[in-house]
Design brief:
By secondary structure, the chain is α/β, with parallel strands linked by helices. It has 2 domains: 10-72, no CATH class; 122-237, Rossmann fold, CATH 3.40.50. The chain is 57% helix and 10% strand. It contains 8 helices and 5 strands. The protein has helices spanning 11-41, 45-67, 74-105, 130-142, 153-162, 179-190, 209-214, 227-237, and strands at residues 122-126, 146-150, 167-171, 199-203, 219-222. A 5-stranded parallel sheet has the order 2-1-3-4-5, with helices on both faces. It is elongated and about 130 Å long.
Length: 240
């Protein structure tokens, strides 16, 4: 029996070893059953036949259980059957999904997918005159732009640091820090970067546009604002 304990034995060899080990038990059992059958033969022939069949069936079941390879036990066979069924179900589901996708793609009557509209670009309006500032804010919002208003150059510098604007409308004549100095500081802060914030001068000094450009402004508008010129200027520098 020592050679039956090797770990490298195949399933058939192991089954043969187990059968050989239990063979004496089978012989003894068959001898006892045979003697008992002879004893009861005189009593009841039907009982003899029944015991003989029962003994043969028991021996066959024992031999089948011992010689059956482990890889083919009922639990593993059921697992293999279930795995095959799962694969068939997955193939059917994949086939149905492919068909539904092809049907959707080929349906020309389906409505187009809605594209979300982007928020309008924001404008920073800088003017120290409250009346002019409120009127300009109203005009810009009527044209569809989002606008923030501040009253001086320092507030404008803080605003462009905290938020991202698409354009600045800059009043040139303001106390403490005028629009020219505010623009120069905006340009100094942009050095070394790849972003350029358009600054449009909003001023009464329409006779000296070169001063606005020299300070770093990109264009200029003369006060009072003309709706047509304002709309044209914004369309050029900040299209919706």
């Amino acid at each position: 029996m020592g050679h039956c304990k090797s770990k490298n034995m195949t399933g058939t060899a192991a089954a043969a070893c187990r059968t050989a080990a239990l063979l004496p038990v089978f012989v003894m059992t068959a001898t006892v059953v045979g003697a008992f059958c002879h004893f009861v033969t005189a009593l009841a022939p039907l009982a003899t036949i029944t015991l003989t069949l029962w003994s043969a069936a028991s021996v066959c079941l024992c031999l089948y259980a011992i010689t059956q390879p482990r890889s083919r036990k009922p639990a593993l066979i059921m697992a293999e059957m279930l795995s095959a069924a799962d694969r068939r179900d997955l193939e059917q589901i994949q086939h149905r999904m492919d068909g539904a996708l092809a049907s959707v793609l080929s349906d020309e009557s389906a409505p187009p997918m809605a594209v979300p509209r982007m928020a309008p670009p924001r404008i920073l309006l800088v003017d120290d005159n409250p009346m002019n500032r409120q009127l300009a804010l109203l005009r810009l919002r009527t044209l569809g732009y989002a606008v923030d208003g501040v009253a001086d150059g320092e507030s404008a510098l803080q605003a462009v640091r905290k938020a991202e604007y698409g354009l600045v409308l800059m009043d040139c004549q303001m106390p403490q820090m005028d629009g020219f100095e505010t623009t120069r500081r905006i340009r100094r802060a942009e050095r070394g970067g790849d972003r350029h914030l358009p600054v449009i001068a909003w001023t009464c000094l329409d006779r000296d546009p070169q001063r606005c450009l020299a300070a770093g402004m990109d264009d200029y508008l003369a006060k009072p604002l003309d709706d047509g010129q304002l709309e044209q200027m914004l369309a050029q520098w900040l299209p919706l």
